[in-house]
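Methods: example folding runs. The two proteins below were folded one after another, and each record is reproduced exactly as written to the output file, sequence line first and structure-token line second.
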Amino acid sequence: MLRFIKSYAHLLSLIALLSSCDSNNNPTQTAVELRDYAEQFAEDDALLVEYLTTHFYNYEDFVGAGEEEITIVIDTIAGDNANKTPMINQVQQISVPVTDTEGVEIDHTLYYLIAKQGSRLEDRPSIVDSVYLTYTGTLLDGTVFDRRINAPIWFDNIAVISGFRYGLQFFAPGTSTRGEDGIDTFLNKGQGIILMPSGIGYFGSSLGSLPEYSPLVFNIGIITTKQNDHDLDGVLSINEDPDGDGNPFNDDTDNDGIANFSDTDDDGDGILTSLELDVDGDGVIDDSDGDGIPDYLDSDS
């Protein structure tokens, strides 16, 4: 269900999702009235905080955990579990920007919890990389709306909901080995939970068992990652970020409506980026006029 989603964090129009459901059980999208992003975020965040305050996960099972995967279980703090530590005391959070229909940027809080960090910290994915993972997506009442557990799947982070994209960057992958029987064994993978308001999820989309304006909980396991060069111009997509804010989605040097990481001619001068990077072959990106702007971003070079 996470495939074929809008590329940008600007959630002006959401697309129906098709992935893990088969052709006879595809979710259908129902159009609803678009709500105010700021008001909806406030409502969603209150629900998420309440959820985090009243629920815990089986953190004790992860103490001294070895290489094998441990199933994450979330339950209510009550009865025999009354003394458990609530997730609100364990989560970390970041702000994810969303631009509303009036062009106003509204920060949405994303919560994430690392249950077990993967062994390859250097390979944590950026928001424009690809991730091979398992996941389960649920509503706050525990209803499962999407799941990929037994067969991992590749996702390109530019093509998933922004909450998923921004949350995955904190989880490192593990290692894999292939036995003589051809079966892969995955060890030391990163595991955790991502919780998001609807504004960085599916917002006003109603998809199968997923109601519109639903805060979401994802239980994820990161197996491996891959850095992307989406336009095959020789510059990794994460490095197509001239303003250095860590968000390549908002970099469009020639203002042609195509982000640099998808644009084969970043400066719009009619010369492909790949042909301007290192003409003299010295391994250093060229700046022929010495103005501090690389040739491939400088239409005057």
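Second run, written to the same file directly after the first:
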Amino acid sequence: MTLLAAGFAGIHLAPAAGQIAAVPPQTISATPDAIKQREQELEATRAQQKSAAELQAKLKADIAAIGQDRSKLNAQLIDIAAQVRGVETRIGDAEARLRPLDSREQQMRGSLESRRSEIIEVLAALQRAGRRTPPALLVRPEDALQSLRTAMLLGSVVPELRGRAEKLAGDLTELVTLRKTIATERDRLAADRDKLRDDQTRMAALVDERQRKQSAAEKDMDAEGARALALSRQVDSLQGLIGKMEQDLKSAAKAAATANLQGAPTGKPNLGALKDPARMTPAIAFASAKGLFAMPVNGSKIRDFGGSDGAGGVEKGISLATRAGAQVTTPCDGWVVYAGPFRSYGQLLILNAGGGYHVLIAGMERISVNIGQFVLTGEPVATMGSRSQVASILATNASQPVLYVEFRKDGTPIDSGPWWAASEGEKVRG
């Protein structure tokens, strides 16, 4: 009976930390299984190192092949950013599926633990009734379940125990099924996380190359960035910031002038124009792109335009709770007129989308584009941190990063709702 109790405890309980510490060091020896596990871990580490080295070599070759072809670089950036966003979505979905499965497994383990004495009684009776006991009868739930099924199949279970044995078998079956499902989900999740890491490495290299080329084209970019920060400290409002940038900063003023002189495309949106990665002006007029934009980041909306801002005012934009480190992409084509910290917004990115429209995106940890740069729909421009950066949201969502997005027309905040695509198939892609 004592052996059975100890065996059953092994189904779902690990030794307490104190119990492990109490074992004299000299009595602990490496078992064959432990040695095999260490060898497997070492082999996995070597495989990861080899994979990383191969990826770096391929990245160098790909970037060298791109050369000075801006369109190829843009196309690869947009493509890899879309892949990253897709893998982020799969990871989020997998984590959402695992939460109830993990919860149910804990419930089942708790139920079995609370019925320990009853289960030991049933299994002891089966042990006495059987001709021989499998050596690993109670090491794992799978073994206990197999023993129960075998005993019932052979008629070893006396009538008064059959009902209790069937109930135990049902619970063990659910637990075993749950464990298999969880293991499968975790394997998929691990594979997606590996892919996300590789995709992010590739995208970081492409972004660095893009900015290197941009820096080569704009010799005074560092000085412009420093001047932008100095000018930003002279204004208190977002509209004041936009005006200051587009009037007093050379690169932003040039971008704004280009946006105004170019004129927005008119007529029905030509989605085919988005396939040109070499374009230097918006492919679609902002005003006519309603229902076509993809959200700039994967996440859930926690605040909407016109709702309470928690401080007695109303929201002028929307707020999206995201994953830590999530990739931020542009919802539309546009010129960067500001990129950097500003007041209580944390890192702020402002795009001039032409036609009097501006898109403001705030709350990121790092921005990867520069003032004056023209960016394409779906292009990676920033990365989220691990917590909220926007002061107005920090108090209520301190533990989760939040992206703030605001649309403006001729300086006035407008509802961005009509511009967002209702489904994946309707989103514009670069």
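Comment on the second run: The radius of gyration is 30 Å.
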